[in-house]
Amino acid sequence: MVSTPAYDPPAALSSDAAPAATARHTGTIIAGCLAVCLAQIGLVLPAAINGVMQRTLQTSGGELTWISDAFLVPAAVLALTFGVVGDLYGRKKLVVGAALLSAVGYLVSATSDSAAQLITGQAISGIGAAALFPASLSMITAITPTPAARAKALASWTTALSLGALIAPLMSGSLVEHASFQWAFGVTGMLAVITAVGAWLLATESSAPEGRSLDWPGQITIAVAMLTLLYGIIQGPSDGWSSAPVVASFVACAVFLAAFVMVEQRSAAPMLRLELFRIPAFAASAAMAVIGMFGFLGGAYDLSIRLGVIQHQSPFHTAVPFLVIQGITPFIWPLLVRLLHHVGPGPMLVTGFVSLAGAQLWLRVVPIHETGPVPLLGPLVLNGVGFGLVVAALTAAAVNVVPPTLTGMASATTSLVRDLGQTLGPAIVGAVALGMAASQLTGSLADAGLTPKEHGIASAVLHEGGPLALHSANLGPLSAKLAPLTEHALANGYNNGLLLTAAACVAAAVIAAVFVGFRHSGTAPAEAEGSTA
């Protein structure tokens, strides 16, 4: 079991101490759920207001992608280090500090009047989320030593994660309907302060410092590798895939990724023990998390651009589909508990990824001019069911198969690969969609019967801001002429992005079927850990 000095297993407690232990147990789960809920709110927050932010700040397609990825990049890059920090110094302290840091980031975003300041605020909040995701999960797994208790706690954590994703579009969509988009970030900052206070008052401290130390060479190399990868993907469509900065970023990514592997192999106390990936279920979970969550969040980003930017729907109407997607998991909470305990992660993962793939393909065939919720209801429900199954099963598959002293590292690694996949979603989908749309518009403008002056204006906007800027620009009568062209080009581009996300989900389902399988042995986590030690 993870070393938790402030907590003893219930079997070792006297009858007088049992109520206090139960209160500590419940309080820790509540605090962990609040923390992951806050982190997920930040992750989903831009979805319903992408269109408003793009029009208000006049951002390019690349800047709009960075607004989302500025939060996701640190959440992915710093997850492993914060997993170690929690193990060394205490998960409760980390959750409190991370929530307060998130509040600072949301304050910066709430006062932003430029894309650069908003991206900065998002990055600060993302650093907080990088700690909240692994620390909240480690805090919960540390006090749930039995299979039944852990299954219930993991389902609670997953449900809280989904509630955060449910709250975010409802809150942001409702607020921005009547106020500026900055209010959505301000209110989230207040929730961050409440989370910090709740964790300080309710949570039980836990840690597992044995054999753990901060690995700065590993952190630096993996951070540079991920940042250069994302820079190349996001800037590729605007700067050109063969441009020197983009090519250099991909080369740097490969070099620093290789350096990370070498550093971790030689380190006396690595931030990531590569032998974890010798556990088939853990390695498969990592691969599925990257590929599958790329598919899910890439599809969600595609949907937000379709509704908020291409169709110019209001923030509240843009939020409704995300409410449907994220509102599924809370309703199937009892089912998640039973499936985790009695069926196992394999069937859940296969079913979930297939559902996500089906949802992406279904959404693709819904015509772009359909603005009502009814035509989207089928793919939205399928998406929500798939998301709930996948997130619950991925977490359980990764955490339950490692030795107790490595649950913090496993939790952090799970957060890393999940967040990396989610970060790649908007980046790759945006790159593919905007690249195809720009290419199509270049030809369409030449054949649109525009005057030389109109063609020059449109070409200049397309060159400087990209297809999204051209679609949203206020160019007077010219905008009416361009609207059918830009809408068609963007719809084609983002529909091809959905083909990519669906293929990723199918690949993840195949990995789950092959490496996790459909059998459930019912092995308790402690037994599984012993077999792999």
Task: Describe the overall structure.
The protein has 533 residues and is mainly alpha-helical. The protein is 79% helix and 0% strand. Helix 11 (280-310) packs parallel to helix 17 (407-446) and helix 16 packs antiparallel against helix 17 (407-446). It starts with 17 loop residues before the first helix and ends with a helix.
Quaternary organisation? single chain
- Main β-sheet, in a few words? none
Rg, nearest Å: 23 Å
* Strand and helix order: HHHHHHHHHHHHHHHHHHHH
C-alpha end-to-end distance: 13 Å
What is the 3D form? globular
Query: What fraction, in percent, of the residue positions are helical?
Result: over 70%
Counting helices, strands and paired strands, the structural category is mainly alpha
What amount of the residues lies in strands? under 5%
**Helix segment tally:** 20
Q: What is the overall pLDDT average? A: 83
Topology, please?
Layout: H1 18-44, H2 50-57, H3 61-77, H4 79-89, H5 91-110, H6 115-141, H7 147-178, H8 182-202, H9 216-239, H10 244-266, H11 280-310, H12 315-326, H13 328-331, H14 333-343, H15 345-364, H16 377-399, H17 407-446, H18 452-472, H19 477-516, H20 525-532
Question: What key attributes describe this structure?
Answer:
globular, mainly alpha, 20 helices, disordered N terminus, 533 residues, 79% helix
Give a brief description.
The protein is mainly alpha-helical and 533 residues long.
